[in-house]
Amino acid sequence: MIERHLMKLRARDEISPEEEAAIRASVSGTRRVPADQLVARAYERLDACTFLLSGFACRAKDLEDGRRQITELHTPGDYVDLHSFTLKYLEHNVLALSDCELAVVPHAALRKITEQLPHLTRVYWFATCLDAAIHREWELSLGRRSAVERMAHLFCELQVRMGLVDLVDREGEAVAYQLSLTQAELAECLGLTSVHVNRTLMQLREERLLEFRSGRVTIHDLPGLRAMAGFDPAYLYLDREPR
Amino acid sequence: MARFYFHLFNGLGSARDEEGREAPSLEAARSCAVEDIRSIISGDARAGVVDLAGWVEIADERGRHLATVRFEDAVELKLPKGGA
């Protein structure tokens, strides 16, 4: 059940059997959240964190008139709100983009981990630092990259993150992964609008780099897409070393 | 709420909207199209070429054409006196 969460952690460090047992013991139950429903509401007091077992979720901030910016996408295995352990409430929403299954970890169980398992505590600290690194990369995209570079970069990022949890398929020369996002949601990630997303997808398709259809991304030319995006995966901290 | 489809036509070709979006009225859908066009024009301006020859066609769920919004109608152009 929590295999993808362990895969994500083990991509960057060793997790001992004792630590794995503590992670399993920290989960008090599971929660299903249907697509388009909130996993956590901004400014609501939280007493548990959740990590994704299956589905896609995002962090999003809204303006009063409904304009929305998605600030990070979450893939299976990710804690979506680990920072709520110290913050106690979040200043953003966590939204299910597809039907999601989540593992619930009470703050009390995380407190116990921080008191008893310093290395696992550092691994989780690393996870929140990694989220911050992803936010910084998105900031760079939103502020400086062109629409097509920004979109190419996001698809490159997801290819790496989905690959870590064994959710990328090889299709001959191409690689492919599920991405249950509408064009409108993609627009909210990229600071664009739906039609602009559609046109930018058309551009990537015409250059034979990538296709996005019916919730599936097919990358025909990964080196080409990375070159177009100026993508360097170093910000995803992929080295496996003691934290 | 009704579902509207926004098909784009411009110098690059056309991009059909297979997903659609909900809007309370055709007027609201027209505003969406204007926002869409402004987003594209702003990206083009950053790249140095603004193409105002395109348009967005709004269709309903049965594919019936409801309205056309032209790029040139989505922005007000203030040109220097005596300019084109």
Overview of the structural elements:
The complex is a heterodimer of chains A (243) and B (84). Chain A has 243 residues and is an alpha+beta fold. Chain A is built from nine helices and eleven strands. In chain A, helix 6 crosses helix 9. Chain A is globular. The mean pLDDT of chain A is 97. By secondary structure, chain B is of the alpha+beta class. Chain B has two helices and five strands; from the N terminus they run E-E-E-H-E-E-H. In chain B, strands 1, 2, 3, 4 and 5 form a five-stranded antiparallel β-sheet that branches. The longest helix of chain B has 22 residues, at 26-47. Chain B is elongated. The model of chain B has no long low-confidence stretch (mean pLDDT 92). The interface between A and B is medium-sized, with 16 and 20 residues.
